[in-house]
Amino acid sequence: MKAELNEQALLKGLANNDSKVVETLYKSHFNMIQHFVINNNGSFDDARDVFQEGMIALYEKVQSESFVLTCQIKTYLFSICKHVWLKRLHQMGKYSSPLSVQEDSISVEEDLMDLEKKDAAFAIMDRALNSLGEPCKSLLEGYYINKKGMQELAADFGYTNADNAKNQKYKCLLRLKKLFFAQYNIGD
What we know:
By secondary structure, this protein is mostly helical. The chain folds into two domains: 1-99, Orthogonal Bundle (Rna Polymerase Sigma Factor, Chain: A); 109-188, Arc Repressor Mutant, subunit A, CATH 1.10.10. The protein is built from eight helices and no strands. The longest helix is centred in the middle third of the chain and has 32 residues, at 101-132. The radius of gyration is 22 Å and the shape is elongated.
């Protein structure tokens, strides 16, 4: 009930063009839209444009006294932004499936749930990586995030050769998996 009242207060603030509400909505929901756009052939700038269009559409809707929001703001914004992005992809020839309003509305909740699950898994992975300790954390980040080769990692970490670095990376990866799944299974 409290969340519903908060959502109504946000909608009212948006209708009154309250900049704090706009900032709150941006902070709360932009990452979700950015994640969707980037994972679907877009860039950070595309995500900003799409989110801006979604916010404008929401703003225009809340100006109407007959508008009644029947879902959470994030669901509504995600639906608008998803539709905008898929339409843009279709115009660029990168999305060939015809846009169906019914199809779009059914999959939004599923997409949102998938996104929330992925975000939770990423948070668990971040905690596991941070609890891994050195040199494992830096070794794995060097290989997977910074895309360094085994020879370069061997030199960076003082291993005698690339095979030793590879062996250490494997051991670190096993420890990371163990930490991740210990935390992941607790959350289920």
